[in-house]
Amino acid sequence: MNILLTGGLGYIGSHLALGLLKKQNVNLTIVDNLSNSKLSVKNKIRFISSKNFKFKKLDLKNKNSLQKLFKKGKFDLVFHLAGSKSVKESQIDPKKYYENNILGAINLLNSMIECNVKDIIFSSTATVYGSKKINCYSENFSREPVNTYGLTKKIIEDLLIDLDRKKKIKSVILRYFNPAGCHASGLLGENPEGTPNNLYPYIIKIIKGDLDFLKVFGNNYKTKDGTGARDYIHIQDLVDAHLNCIQFVKKKSGIFNIGTGKPYTVLDIINSFQKHCNFKINYNFYPRREGDIDIYYNKISKAKKILGWSAKRGLKEISQSTFKFAIKSK
Ligand code: WQD
Q1: Residue 178: which H helix or E strand, with range?
Q2: d(CA 230, ligand 1 centre) in Å
Q3: Which phi-psi region, left, alpha or beta, contains residue 180 (left: φ > 0; alpha: ψ -120 to 50)?
Q4: 149 catalytic, yes or no?
Q5: For ligand 1, is residue 255 a contact (CB within 6 Å)?
Q6: Which of 27, 82, 234, 271 counts the most CB atoms within 10 A of its CB?
Q7: Whose CA is nearest to atom 1 of ligand 1?
């Protein structure tokens, strides 16, 4: 099976690449524009998997390069993970998100149609739901994204839904909650340049000694300890959810939330590193971050019932794998 993985050198993409390379009869091609990933990850994937795969530095906004790739690749399935994903950046530079995420997706889908590639698994996000007065989200909830990042993901979802209706392309849309954790080898993890916006990459920098303490944004949320609560899903469980979609998408399209169904607060996360890694994270409380909500987590039944998938790992595995990666990447 010839598989194209876009964004395959990124945090989620690189872990998914390893999962795909473990499968029999997979010829993998990875494309990535290296805007939010490092070329060194390619060698790490080769080293960990001892498998070969094709890699091409390619930006999905470059229609001609994409068409050439599809003519040669003869793909059977596409995993589409390439895209800009910072909520904060999307509010500062919305045009970049429309170009990268929507134009990139349109070019990709046009190439798929031109070369009769029928199946795609798309990396979407729970951010499409927006911030309602509820905590537990299921797939049939309305999508009212409150930032440009979430809006671009919703627009791509709508495009896929239309293409499915016209029987052009079947798709599985996976709405991730909060991916976290690292590869068991300690060689792959989320390690962006500069000061991270997200919680776990920030903690990684604290463990590495690059940052001194954690700013906890808000301690008066309606949660058990006042700090924000999220549904953190171990990257390996997230990868398994994608692999479970390969057979499903051959038959039909679907939309699934991918989370654990168990929300944890920021203080739970801090305590988990103390308990499972004997590592004390110093922190101070700061005002709430604009746009943050008290708590959001996934109603897990649909993926379990239809894909036969549910998360197997929890905070302990997330903390220990994160700690191992941070120490190794010091
Ligand atoms: C988690 C919690 C913060 C940093 C984002 C994107 C979403 C998805 C997942 C792509 C919140 C608190 C954080 C810090 C803190 N990405 N926090 N100090 O905002 O839930 O979701 O990542 O799909 O689209 O929006 O994740 O990790 O930024 O925050 O206290 O330095 O940690 O307030 O409660 P978020 P996050």
Answers
A1: strand 178-180
A2: 8
A3: beta
A4: yes
A5: no
A6: 82
A7: 199
CB proximity list for 164: less than 8 A, separation 6 or greater: 170, 171, 253
Q: Which tokens belong to 238?
A: 């997230």
Pairing of strands 229-230, 264-265: antiparallel
Distance CA 31, CA 8 (A): 6
The structural architecture, per CATH, of the domain 199-230+262-328 is Alpha-Beta Complex (3.90)
The closest residue, in CA terms, to atom 36 on ligand 1 is 198
- d(CA 300, CA 303) in angstroms, rounded, equals 6
pLDDT at 319: 98
pLDDT digits (tens, 9 = 90+) for 238-293: 999 999 999 999 999 999 999 999 999 999 999 999 999 999 999 999 999 988 88
What phi and psi values does residue 175 have, to the nearest 5 degrees?
-95, 105
Distance CA 295, CA 293 (A): 6
Q: Where are the domains of the chain?
A: 2-180+232-258, 199-230+262-328
Report the candidate in 231, 238, 229, 195 with the shortest Cα–Cα distance to residue 214. Answer: 195
List pLDDT tens digits, range 44-56.
Answer: 999 999 999 999 9
User: Which residues contact residue 129 at a Cβ distance below 8 angstroms, ignoring those fewer than 6 apart?
Assistant: 137, 141, 142, 143, 144, 145, 175, 296
Q: CATH for 2-180+232-258?
A: 3.40.50.720
CA atoms within 13 A on the CB side of 262: 11
